[in-house]
Amino acid sequence: MAVCTVYTIPTTTHLGGSFNQNKQVFFNYKRSSSFPSSNNILTSVSRPYVITCSAGESQTIVIGLAADSGCGKSTFMRRLTSVFGGAAEPPKGGNPDSNTLISDTTTVICLDDFHSLDRTGRKEKGVTALDPRANDFDLMYEQVKALKEGKPVDKPIYNHVSGLLDPPELIQPPKILVIEGLHPMYDARVRELLDFSIYLDISNEVKFAWKIQRDMKERGHSLESIKASIEARKPDFDAYIDPQKQYADVVIEVLPTQLIPDDDEGKVLRVKMIQKEGVKYFNPVYLFDEGSTISWIPCGRKLTCSYPGIKFSYGPDTFYDNEVTVVEMDGQFDRLDELIYVESHLSNLSTKFYGEVTQQMLKHQDFPGSNNGTGFFQTIIGLKIRDLFEQIVANRSAAPAAAAKA
Amino acid sequence: MAVCTVYTIPTTTHLGGSFNQNKQVFFNYKRSSSFPSSNNILTSVSRPYVITCSAGESQTIVIGLAADSGCGKSTFMRRLTSVFGGAAEPPKGGNPDSNTLISDTTTVICLDDFHSLDRTGRKEKGVTALDPRANDFDLMYEQVKALKEGKPVDKPIYNHVSGLLDPPELIQPPKILVIEGLHPMYDARVRELLDFSIYLDISNEVKFAWKIQRDMKERGHSLESIKASIEARKPDFDAYIDPQKQYADVVIEVLPTQLIPDDDEGKVLRVKMIQKEGVKYFNPVYLFDEGSTISWIPCGRKLTCSYPGIKFSYGPDTFYDNEVTVVEMDGQFDRLDELIYVESHLSNLSTKFYGEVTQQMLKHQDFPGSNNGTGFFQTIIGLKIRDLFEQIVANRSAAPAAAAKA
């Protein structure tokens, strides 16, 4: 059964305005694949209207990405949307400070938009943005649920420049909705809506090294102020953000390298992709031999690597009482085209052709993290999500046929 | 050109007697594949004769196996000859204390037979059997050379029971000659005759643990006497036996396990197969990805192992200034049929069908070392030698054809 929804459009610009959902129209698309010839419903609508159709319940696949960072056009999202073929851009003609990114198939919304308190409000109440009390989980749940059900929503905008809540923007239900931010897995109701979830976990050592690079060397902050700002965030981070790891289908941990003794530069990274077992439509990536424990230094007679080289590790583990499969990459690639050598030894990559991961990485070699495990695993997760999406869609089209047969 | 050699046979039994080489007959087998019709050479021989023909020079392929042990029907040789299909047995009707083993394709001779001093002689001169002065390298060289050239020899027999030199036995040139003992790579001339060489290196810790088991628990020797006997052998062993390692194409090192902290039982073994690079007709075995460095614990979700499990390591290394490829197995198999799981991840095994290593191991599961790396790597080396043999033979038959074409 298809679900079509008719919305009236206010005469003002849709930014700042609000859509009024008038009526849901249900019809069986098996009887007629075209729009119903009887348009009496439509004629009853006096104002300009938009009709959004979904092929049934849960048309939109919802992906949660938790990370401790500002939202915005993160590299991960650019890699993800690139896998689906289109470039992600902010909504055309809308609020220039919108946090949303839209591509042909994917819409990425930033959960900061569900802040219930703006910068001043948080200051007054003495809560951080990490604190659930600064966020409106009821609205987050309602809007994600509506989008998942194929209904557009008027989502608020949190303006990262002004620190204020701007008028809402219209979000149409996409094929894939990514909710990115601090709390995608915090609220149990929102969590339930997720078809797949990712936690991007930057270790304190790496966060610190990165902040030193950016805030001290580039922005002139003092070492003390950087330390203080990290320390200040820590209690709320540990209380509200970090525990979401346990719910993630994949955790990407970014850690200092173990290839350089006592490294504190944070330039060479060790990245772990912790993949939960038993997740529907998701088969963990493995190295060489599924289920065993392996370490692999590809550098040698076939692949020459500059110091400190590259080391992969693979094996089963447990993580928050869940069975997981971990693939780890320590070190960085000297040449991106050599990635094909690594790619060819990984299995369950969900590529559509030999070398697709390498091709994606080469396409975006200017993106941060392209020479290490962050870019590599983000690209792989993009492919896994595409596969998950295609499996869900295939399963849905198979289901009515099976029901008809029965 | 084929080389035929005519020998007269003395009327006494060949054991203890000696063959007299009368004449070498050269003929071009391309002109006539049958024996020359003119038998005037033969009629000139008045006594009964034996004719041994070889298809050219170096018909016999010579393998050297160095090991610190008594010779005899070692497990390694039984595994090796089994790969060629026939069981190895002592020469029929000969000296019951012969150290020789003969199968359809393979003859294993023990280099103790080239002792120039018997037990009493060594005692009188104060030299051990390890000392080159107790061995006749001229005779060793002459006889191995003769066999390699397709000529039978009357090889002495060192009687391990009496400690005396018994009358010689006739050795016919086999397809594959294995010279096994303390000094196969000691003399440069003998070394030059080897088509392939193996050094079986039992570490002192394991030797000690084994001797404790055998000499103390089974034969009632004291711990002190065992220690003393090992210590007494050490200087000559280090001076004359150990340095041969550098010439070996493959070294099998038997070491204590690293899976059990501070293990001194010597029951669980770590076995390294150190394979020299660049040896003609020999491509080193590798694990998963040639030229990289890998550790692999196959135990996990697919293969359950009892304590302490199994760990494989693989990678390039240098050994006595030579480039080598090392495959290591630590631990032991719980069930031999699970070997197929390990076998399927090794490459360049020179098997003729999938699972041949496992089949060979199952066939001889009662042999010592069948559940660990000693048996596993010995079996693999057997297959590599078969492959080497077949390549040499194929190369030889191709060579005259190419010469005829040119």
TrEMBL record, chains A, B:
Gene Ontology molecular function, alphabetical: ATP binding; phosphoribulokinase activity; protein homodimerization activity
Enzyme Commission code(s) on record: 2.7.1.19
Stored Pfam families: PRK (PF00485)
One GO BP: reductive pentose-phosphate cycle
Main location: plastid
Pathway field: Carbohydrate biosynthesis; Calvin cycle
GO cellular component, one term: chloroplast
Gene3D superfamilies the UniProt entry points to: P-loop containing nucleotide triphosphate hydrolases
Keyword set includes Plastid: yes
Keywords, alphabetical: ATP-binding, Calvin cycle, Chloroplast, Disulfide bond, Kinase, Nucleotide-binding, Photosynthesis, Plastid, Transferase, Transit peptide
Record's subcellular location: Plastid, Chloroplast
Catalytic activity field: D-ribulose 5-phosphate + ATP = D-ribulose 1,5-bisphosphate + ADP + H(+)
Protein name: Phosphoribulokinase
Originating species: Chenopodium quinoa
Designated gene of the protein: LOC110730081
